[in-house]
């Protein structure tokens, strides 16, 4: 009989800061809270805010990444993306973009033009998913997961829907390929509905209440914009929606390798960071027009 | 707060930890929010700034409103306006904070005042001045004679991580080229080196 996964902490969103002029993010980790979330290195949460209409392009200009993957999950608003490998696309609510920077890529992210002109609510999660040393210098790739093609598990009795971004939920497999074992779902529950989530005890596990309010393991309460971080005890999480709710579930097997980070580079050793800076400066990441 | 400056002195002078501590005990730090202007034309400023954390920029603005960056000062650099600090004439330059920055305020008499504690400090000060003259000579030569690519390659050797910290137009301003030619240089390098 699997045991309930122990809640380690219910975390409020840390004070927000701007990333470029398009993203107002609460950084839950690594700087907001010192919690173990390996293979997830960073989580920036843009809680729902209203952007006023504008003709100006809000966002982040061309910047490099090496040594990890960026995963962008959209809930409100729309983001346009371009990278130096020639990929481009727009992430709309419900979509996920999984970009493997690996050996190095340049990209830029802006509010999509027609959303910008209209303005309105904006809510996103961006994760940095670390890569094991042996994959850090692999070829960059790009997985665009449109909501309409996403694997979905329908909960019984019209209770809601589990959108499986990666991993497997009750036999439904997510299409995003990963380098280490990861479970990542958007759980959309109607008021009063229950769902069970699971991850092995050694996985670093958390969930964020994107919308609504939930009870976790029958006793703990979490509300919109809070993160629930779990201890390495037990494997099953029971959630119950107190109102219509959306929950992002994250669990991953830790990579447990040394980390060296500078700005947009995530490597194992300081000398690899110096190499990354030199490679970026001398054009080895390619070129992308501002 | 004083550790970086103490290490800076210890790397350049044969002194003990205690001497470094004593010599710097009178120094105060100050933090500036990104965007703060620390010096404007017309100001008289006798202090120098040693950067603990963050990034300052020393620049002028011409009649057309165009900025010309003379120097970036990241961690472990010093910046001062010699016209006002040494010659007591109003500055013609600006200093502002490109990032949230913590500096140590180094008064103009600092090196003279700690002579008793650190007998070789004046020699170090002279060496630092020569070094900065050498730096300026190289920089003038670059601005007069080097191609845009040569200027950029020299810049990334001097300031390897600034390409990740400051916008392209500021780098172009420092190099005395247009942002378009900096883009072209970076594009050409990518063509040569991207596999």
From TrEMBL, chain A:
InterPro entries referenced in this protein's UniProt entry, alphabetically: Pirin, Pirin_C_dom, Pirin_N_dom, QDO-related, RmlC-like_jellyroll, RmlC_Cupin_sf
Domain of life of the organism encoding this protein: Bacteria
Domain Pirin N-terminal stretches: 26-129
Domain (Pirin C-terminal) ranges: 185-286
Family per record: Belongs to the pirin family.
Protein name: Pirin family protein
UniProtKB/TrEMBL annotation, chain B:
Cyclic nucleotide-binding domain segment(s): 15-103
Gene3D superfamilies noted in UniProt: Jelly Rolls
Name of protein: Crp/Fnr family transcriptional regulator
Lineage: Bacteria, Pseudomonadati, Bacteroidota, Sphingobacteriia, Sphingobacteriales
């Amino acid at each position: 009989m699997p045991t309930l996964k122990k809640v380690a902490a219910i975390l409020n969103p840390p004070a927000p800061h701007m990333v470029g002029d398009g993203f107002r993010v609460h950084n839950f980790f690594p700087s907001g809270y010192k919690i173990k979330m390996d293979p997830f290195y960073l989580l920036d949460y843009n809680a729902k805010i209203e952007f006023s209409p504008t003709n100006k392009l809000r966002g982040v200009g061309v910047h490099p990444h090496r040594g990890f993957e960026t995963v962008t999950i959209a809930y409100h608003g729309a983001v346009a993306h371009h990278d130096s490998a020639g990929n481009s696309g727009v992430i709309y609510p419900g979509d996920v973009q999984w970009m493997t920077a690996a050996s190095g890529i340049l990209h830029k992210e802006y509010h999509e033009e027609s959303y910008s002109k209209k303005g309105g609510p904006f809510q996103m999660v961006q994760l940095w998913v670390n890569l094991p040393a042996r994959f850090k210098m692999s070829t960059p790739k790009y997985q665009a997961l449109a909501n309409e093609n996403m694997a979905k598990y329908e909960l019984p009795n019209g209770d809601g829907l589990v959108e499986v971004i990666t991993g497997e939920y009750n036999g439904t497999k997510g299409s995003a390929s990963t380098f280490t074992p990861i479970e990542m779902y958007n759980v959309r529950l109607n008021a009063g509905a229950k769902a069970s989530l699971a991850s092995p005890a050694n996985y670093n596990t958390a969930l964020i209440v994107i919308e609504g309010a939930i009870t976790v393991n029958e006793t703990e309460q979490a509300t919109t914009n809070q993160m629930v971080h779990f201890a390495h005890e037990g494997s099953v999480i029971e959630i119950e929606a107190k109102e219509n709710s959306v929950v992002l579930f994250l669990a991953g097997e830790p990579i447990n390798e040394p980390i060296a980070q500078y700005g947009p580079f995530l490597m194992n050793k300081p000398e690899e960071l110096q190499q990354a800076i030199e490679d970026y400066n001398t054009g080895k990441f390619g070129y992308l027009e501002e | 707060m004083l550790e970086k400056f103490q290490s800076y002195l210890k790397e350049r002078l044969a002194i003990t930890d205690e001497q470094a501590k004593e010599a710097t005990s009178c120094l105060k730090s100050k933090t500036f929010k990104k965007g703060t202007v620390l010096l404007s034309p017309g100001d008289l400023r006798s202090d120098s700034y040693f950067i603990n954390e963050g990034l300052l920029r020393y620049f002028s603005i011409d009649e057309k409103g165009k900025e010309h960056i003379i120097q970036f000062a990241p961690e472990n650099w010093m910046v001062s306006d010699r016209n006002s600090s040494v010659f007591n004439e109003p500055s013609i330059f600006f200093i502002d904070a490109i990032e949230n920055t913590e500096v140590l305020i180094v008064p103009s008499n600092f090196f003279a005042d700690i002579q008793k504690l650190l007998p070789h400090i004046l020699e170090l000060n002279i060496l630092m001045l020569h070094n900065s003259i050498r730096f300026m000579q190289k920089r003038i030569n670059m601005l007069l004679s080097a191609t845009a690519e040569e200027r950029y390659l020299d810049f990334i050797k001097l300031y390897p991580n600034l390409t990740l910290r400051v916008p392209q137009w500021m780098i172009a301003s420092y190099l005395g080229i247009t942002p378009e030619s900096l883009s072209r240089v970076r594009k050409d390098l990518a063509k040569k080196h991207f596999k």
